[in-house]
């Protein structure tokens, strides 16, 4: 029997009673999808699955984004949809991306078809003196929307903003990442796109703030200063401690999180000798806005 136990923070629930090495029943998948809209971050403990099962489970939520050309050699061999996130170096070669996601962002807002879900399985987790390092932190953009001043909700109701993949890349480089600058060809692979500043979450039916510090560079049609001030206001609002939650990993955790209603960052508080290894699938929102998919996946629980 599937069990969903919410924690006592703004995000997060624990899901037990399923085995991701086997296919989830439709009823269990519906329960997971509903819980994802409600709690934003789901931990399925004791699921030591390998890349193929990770990919099969992730594909229930939508199409999978393949790794970009610059990091194609940092994935599961033969599976371009499964990235390896790791600081492990073997025979002088990094086996994965060492500093993925180490600042606040929402994955794939730089895509025309935005992101819906990330699914990670923890294979190695750094521990120092009994303390688990390398957490993933989240913030709740549904709760943050609810608390916005009414005049900001009105002012931004029909406004869009531009998201640029290169922006996060440059943030990381300024912080000391050794990743090279994106080439023109790489930037053309994922050119900037616009999305509404507020979205209605397809599963929960609640409004969310859909800008993030990693990729959102401009409110469309606004003067530069006004755009910067509003984005800075939204960024510091969403990052208030009351909207935040941290997941401290255990090997075998599968973490599923909703990109539409959250931001996240990976905490890089471990050294090169303290090994962290995650396998990741990034799922696009190519299905979840489709009423037919939602009706089939959620049945009577689909938002009207
Ligand atoms: C990511 O941003 O997808 C990486 C998160 C993590 O490694 O904790």
Quick synopsis:
With 304 residues, the protein is α+β, with helices and mostly antiparallel strands. The chain has 8 helices and 20 strands.
Structure notes:
The protein has 304 residues and is an alpha+beta fold. It has one domain: Double-stranded beta-helix. 24% of the residues lie in helices and 28% in strands. The chain has an 8-stranded mixed β-sheet with strand order 1-2-3-18-8-20-5-4, covered by helices on one side. Strands 17-11-19 form a 3-stranded antiparallel β-sheet. Strands 13-12-16 form a 3-stranded antiparallel β-sheet. The longest helix has 15 residues. The chain is globular, with a radius of gyration of 19 Å. Bound molecules: succinic acid. Succinic acid (SIN) binds next to strand 19 and strand 20. The site of succinic acid (SIN) has 10 residues, from strand 19 and strand 20.
Blueprint (SSEs and pairs):
Blueprint lengths: L2 E4 L6 E4 L9 H14 L1 E4 L6 H8 L16 E2 L2 E8 L2 E2 L2 E2 L20 E10 L2 E2 L2 E2 L3 E5 H6 L3 H6 L4 E4 L1 H10 L9 H6 L3 E4 L1 E3 L6 E3 L6 E4 L4 H15 L5 E4 L6 E5 L3 E5 L10 E8 L6 H8 L6
Parallel strand pairs: 2-3
Antiparallel strand pairs: 1-2, 3-18, 4-5, 5-20, 6-7, 8-18, 8-20, 9-10, 11-17, 11-19, 12-13, 12-16, 14-15
Bound molecules: succinic acid (SIN).
Low-confidence stretches: none
Give the class from helix and strand content and strand pairing.
Answer: alpha+beta
Beta strands, count:
20
CATH fold annotation: Double-stranded beta-helix
Beta-strand share of residues: 25-35%
In the CATH scheme, the class would be: Alpha Beta
The CATH H-level homologous superfamily: Clavaminate synthase-like
| Mean pLDDT over all positions | 95
Percent helix = 10-25%
Helix tally?
Answer: 8
Q: What is the radius of gyration?
A: 19 Å
Major pleated sheet: 8 strands, mixed
Looking across the biggest beta sheet, what order are the strands in? Answer: 1-2-3-18-8-20-5-4
Number of domains: 1
Shape: globular
Question: What string, H for helix and E for strand, traces the elements in order?
Answer: EEHEHEEEEEEEEHHEHHEEEEHEEEEH
Second rung of CATH, namely the architecture: 4-Layer Sandwich
The kinds of small molecule bound in this structure are: succinic acid
How many angstroms does the end-to-end distance come to?
28 Å
């Amino acid at each position: 029997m599937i069990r969903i136990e919410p924690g006592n923070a703004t995000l997060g629930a624990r899901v037990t009673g399923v085995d991701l090495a086997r296919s989830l029943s439709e009823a269990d998948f519906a329960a997971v999808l509903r819980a994802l809209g409600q709690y934003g971050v789901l931990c399925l403990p004791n699921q030591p699955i390998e890349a193929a099962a990770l990919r099969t489970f992730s594909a229930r939520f939508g199409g999978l984004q393949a790794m970009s050309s610059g990091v194609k050699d940092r994935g599961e061999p033969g599976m371009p949809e499964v990235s390896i996130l790791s600081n492990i170096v073997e025979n002088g070669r990094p086996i994965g991306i060492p500093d993925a996601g180490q600042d606040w962002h929402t994955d794939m807002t730089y895509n025309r078809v935005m992101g819906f879900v990330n699914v990670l399985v923890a294979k190695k987790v750094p521990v120092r003196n009994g303390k688990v390092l390398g957490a993933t932190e989240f913030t709740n953009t549904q709760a943050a929307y609810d608390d916005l001043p009414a005049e900001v909700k009105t002012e931004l109701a029909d406004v869009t903003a531009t998201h640029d993949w290169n922006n996060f890349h440059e943030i990381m480089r300024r912080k000391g990442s050794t990743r090279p600058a994106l080439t023109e060809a790489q930037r053309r692979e994922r050119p900037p796109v616009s999305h509404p500043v507020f979205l209605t979450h397809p599963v929960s039916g609640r409004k969310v703030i859909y800008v993030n510090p990693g990729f959102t560079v401009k409110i469309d049609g606004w003067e530069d200063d006004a755009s910067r001030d509003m984005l800075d206001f939204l960024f510091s609002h969403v990052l208030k401690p009351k909207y935040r939650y941290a997941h401290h990993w255990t090997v075998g955790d599968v973490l599923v999180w909703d990109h539409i209603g959250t931001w996240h960052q990976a905490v890089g508080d471990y050294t090169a000798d303290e090994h962290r290894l995650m396998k990741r699938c990034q799922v696009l929102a190519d299905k979840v806005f489709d009423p037919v998919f939602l009706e089939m996946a959620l049945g009577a629980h689909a938002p009207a």
